[in-house]
Amino acid sequence: MLKLSVADDANVQPLASLNDHRMSHPPPSPIYTLRGAGGPLNSLHFRCYGEDAPLLFSGSGKGCIHIWNLNTRRTNKVIEGHSGSSIIWVCTKRSKDTLISQGRDMQICLWDLGEGRCDLLDSVWTGSVGFCQCSMLETSPISSLLAFAGQQTEEIKIIELPSKIQICTLMPVAKVGMVMCINLFQPDSCPGPLLLAGYEEGSLLLWDVTQQSILSQVKAHPDPVMCLTFDPTRLRGISGSSEKNLSSWKLDEKNNLQLQGGVTLANPGVSQLCIREDGKLLASAGWDSRVRVFGWKKLRPLAVLQYHTDMVLSVAFSDHQDPRQRLMAAGSKDQRISLWSLYNES
């Protein structure tokens, strides 16, 4: 188990190279593993704030949502709500006990988890046949914006929840292919929300949601953009594809996307990227069954985690209020979830 403050990471010998040939310290092991999901783990989401037991939600390729109690390390509940179709995204609202799930059945489902319930509140039909995960932005304690891929391959729709009122449809004029990944956020510098989208053609587009217009566009990858994550505090982001390179980029004061280089990995293919809430760590879920951990500030390689026996599909950091309890979870096609304690404050 590796527990070290990132503030002290100068004392940690990083990888000899980004090709992962050797490390000066043996890679850490997971603190424990969750089994029994019954399928590939496409999505993970923590809910560890408040007085209740810390929870981890997982969505599997077999159409099940597991709610894991991290104290007992067992499932509290299993939800089967997408007719056996693969679950590709799960998320909860901070304001109340609402779970949102997205399935390959073209449905987004809203669940009431209050007082031990597991009741279906509502659903939204997307019409999308792709794998693009939803993105949610909570705008008030009672309302949220939800962005998702629409019926047309390049289409992104944004609705308000819980009313389901459609806010806008974002459709690029240029041919950039299917929308692959999206991130909805609200920067301090703008009066309204912005949306980052990665497309099949390899481009990143920054949308002004209010004006329904493109603010900036860059070619980030030669292949489809498989995943992206964005740090709204530092206005920096990073994206991955089926190739070996992670592409780093930022927003300038005029909301222009600027490429900043990136990282070359040993093996191609990244399923998901996640930045820890404190802005110190970046984790990547690799097709080569490895999780790679970087310092987010300089993209310095810190660790290569080799535990899973098949491609890693999802990675998430916990939202524990106590930094000493922070965890990272990785979900794999091998049907296991590994839990890690990495670079926590002493």
TrEMBL record:
Record PANTHER family: GUANINE NUCLEOTIDE-BINDING PROTEIN SUBUNIT BETA-LIKE PROTEIN 1 (PTHR19854:SF1), TRANSDUCIN BETA-LIKE 3 (PTHR19854)
SUPFAM superfamilies: WD40 repeat-like (SSF50978)
Gene: gnb1l
Record-given protein name: Guanine nucleotide-binding protein subunit beta-like protein 1
Lineage: superkingdom: Eukaryota
Native species: Gouania willdenowi (Blunt-snouted clingfish)
TM region(s), chain numbering: none
WD repeat feature ranges: 218-259, 305-346
Keywords for the protein's UniProt record, in alphabetical order: Repeat, WD repeat
Gene3D superfamilies: YVTN repeat-like/Quinoprotein amine dehydrogenase
